[in-house]
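User: For a reading group we're discussing how well predicted structures match intuition. Take YfhL family 4Fe-4S dicluster ferredoxin. Before you show the prediction, I'll give you the sequence so everyone sees exactly what went in.
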Amino acid sequence: MALLITDECINCDVCEPECPNSAISPGEEIYEIDPMLCTECVGHYDEPQCQQVCPVDCIPHDPDHQESHDELMQKYMIITGQAS
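Assistant: Thanks. Here is the predicted 3D structure of YfhL family 4Fe-4S dicluster ferredoxin, as structure tokens, for the group to look at:
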């Protein structure tokens, strides 16, 4: 499942550069995560890097975008151009 940034975000700017898929971008009020690009860092890291650096712990799983590890890996393969 993709991640999402809640309204508890303080716009500290630390999550955006940590995302290997460029899924995080500034929104109108807070940062946002594009669920089509978020792989929870599957394929890149063992844990989502944005969650690791967030000082206010405002990046939970997005219940509207549930995906298995295999689905996240498939998305990673497509995003990185490794899909066959």
